[in-house]
């Protein structure tokens, strides 16, 4: 009990600032301390908000590219138009000046360019990648250009080096040596699987290309250029499928005309398949290794056969282009030559005398037919 009674309690008081210890200073209360603490918290929160807002503004400013302007709501996106004529002519001029072995001849390049000038900007489908591919893509500025090639690595290489180029690879199951059996099968099924008007995506015809992306079969193609695949050896894929597919796409894409151009027309596959599926009645012009067909779809085409008259005795005259005047030609055309020298140039194809009929579609589009 003695130890417990001797225990003393010590009371500690908070020390006050010296200036508050003077006379007239009110004593500090718990409420006053609480108010001071609340003010400090508000100040810290306000400063944190300002810091965060400043940092966010700085980041947005740094992320915006220089000289960029904010997009206006509902602003119209400009649509690319055709290539200006002077740029079109300049590209064509330098392309023809740099022609090397393995490329189209300069007058063939000008002929294809003439079709693109008259139809562009358009939907252009090109079978085969080659030295002229970038030229076709550029001349069809404002339109859609799609390339189809047998080599998927070649397609990938082109797309990587030239952003914006659209290409797809196709696995051809044909050979040049199989030309006659393939033609026989197509003729036997011309009213069925190989009919001229159909959706090739669901076709069982051996000549049909049906492994392209689905949306390509729904495009109304204005111009189709057949310059591939390879066809220089019996084991090459040949262009039977490309020409057949071009013929069906041209007839199934609507009522408008489709210009189909076939390169290497002097070879057997190109010449025979063009006559079978594109038809001589649609042959607008031909010169050396290039042929131009104009195919009409819709009600103007047969549904049970490709050609209206396979027994016709008239055929397009293959006349040499006058190369010095090709710069003034705005479309693929064959000009009538009235001299004896030009008439004699037909002798390898037709026995003389030859009657030459010239048909004029427009002032810039004419073609000739030789009639026996």
TrEMBL record:
GO annotation, cellular component aspect: Golgi membrane
Main subcellular location: Golgi
Pfam family, any one: IRX15_IRX15L_GXM
The membrane topology noted for this protein in its Swiss-Prot or TrEMBL record is:
Single-pass membrane protein
Q: Which residue ranges run through the membrane? A: 41-59
Localization, per the record, is: Golgi apparatus membrane
Q: Which GO terms describe its biological process?
A: xylan biosynthetic process
What InterPro entries does the entry give? IRX15/GXM/AGM
Q: Which UniProt keywords apply?
A: Membrane, Transmembrane, Transmembrane helix
PANTHER family, per the entry: OS11G0490100 PROTEIN
Q: What is this protein called?
A: Protein irregular xylem 15
What's the source species for this entry? Apostasia shenzhenica
